[in-house]
Amino acid sequence: RGQMEAAAGRGLDLAGPLRDLLPPVDFCCAYGSTLTHARPDGTSMVDYILGVADPLQWHSENLARNPTHYSSWMARRGPEAVTWLADRVGVGVYFNPFVEWGDKRIKYGVVAMKDLATDILTWDQFYLSGRLQKPVRVLVDNWDIRMVNTVNLKMAAAASLLLLPKEFTEHDLYAKICSLSYMGDIRMLFAEDKYKVKKIVDGSFQPFQLMYRPLIQDYISEGILKMSDYRQQKAFKQDCGVSATNELFSSLPRMIQRRLQGRFTSNSTDIPTRALVPSKEVAAASVRTALRRRVMVSSARQAACGLLASGGLVAARYLGKKMSKALSTRYL
User: Fold this and answer.
1) Is residue 175 in a domain?
2) CA–CA distance from 176 to each of 14, 88, 167, 281 (Å)?
3) Which one, 92, 234, 303, 310, has least CB within 10 Å?
4) What is the dihedral of CA 85, 88, 89, 91, to 10 degrees?
């Protein structure tokens, strides 16, 4: 049970009150800076992912219960507009940011359970799947999501090993895993803290260990990794041969394997179960290109969804907060 509860015990015991605030959900986790910083900024939002069986029904009930959580123009248009915007413009997630709740400010994103599970398994959007590769605190557990996320963690570890050099530290591995979902993210150009990845890993090193050490042990048992001394730290040396590279590459989502095999289309049923790559460099290039393109598209779509959902005012406020934080780190 440690994998998706790795960030527990940091003072965010909100499960009961959150259930009182919102309609029932099938899955809920908290993520973000409030989990990774020992002393989060008093203005920081607590971020949640809410998985629900039927977003249309859920938003209908939530609009009746909490209409002020939505922008006035989205509240007037109703739940059909909310779900249409999430699915047609965004990547299936609808966020309500800057929700005042007691002495806290929260942001929650609502997604259909089937869409959440699909993204975790396939990386077709590589949006919520990237968040669940990092430490989160599960408040409403779901066995199916827990199980599919074990696949997500293995794919994240495999992709990161392909992108890392022959020797690296444990911190390097977690930093690479953490960086996957930011590759190509348009927010990283101007609206994110440039030290974000380092801060997440430094603030959550032990939770990362709980999530990924079983996989590391598996790779050591398989001979893909060996323990070594590197930069005077306990570190790893990986097998960069063709056989080990293909073992890692074959465990990645098909959307990455298709990038290597351009002759296959997204609707093809003839994609081999094991794609062969001639070298680690070729595999790494395929991973890098596929993730950058996917993240760029998903982050742009979700940004557009946020702008339309808020009518611009709330999104401008959110963007201003992000840019202020980014600028404060870029000139240090």
Assistant:
1) yes
2) 30, 31, 13, 16
3) 234
4) 100
Both tokens assigned to 295:
């993240």
Rounded-to-integer distance, Cα 9 and Cα 70, Å: 31
Distance CA 200, CA 209 (A): 13
Whether 232 is covered by a domain: the verdict is yes
pTM for the structure as a whole? 0.86
- Locate 253 and state its tokens: 């989502």
pLDDT on residue 141? 93
Average pLDDT over residues 32-37: 66
> What digits encode the pLDDT tens for the residues 215-251?
999 999 999 999 987 666 779 999 999 999 999 999 9
DSSP for 196-258 reads HHHHHHHHTHHHHHHHHHHHHHHHHHTTSEEEEEETTEEEEEE--SHHHHHHHHTTS-HHHHH
Q: Would 233 be classed as within a structural domain?
A: yes
Domain count for the chain: 1
Residues contacting residue 274 through CB under 8 Å, at least 6 positions apart: 246, 250
Sheet holding 167-169, edge to edge: 167-169, 233-238, 225-230
- pLDDT (tens digit per residue) in 161-180: 999 999 999 999 999 999 99
165 lies in which domain range?
15-331
Q: By three-state DSSP, how is residue 140 classified?
A: strand
Tell me if 2 is assigned to some domain: no
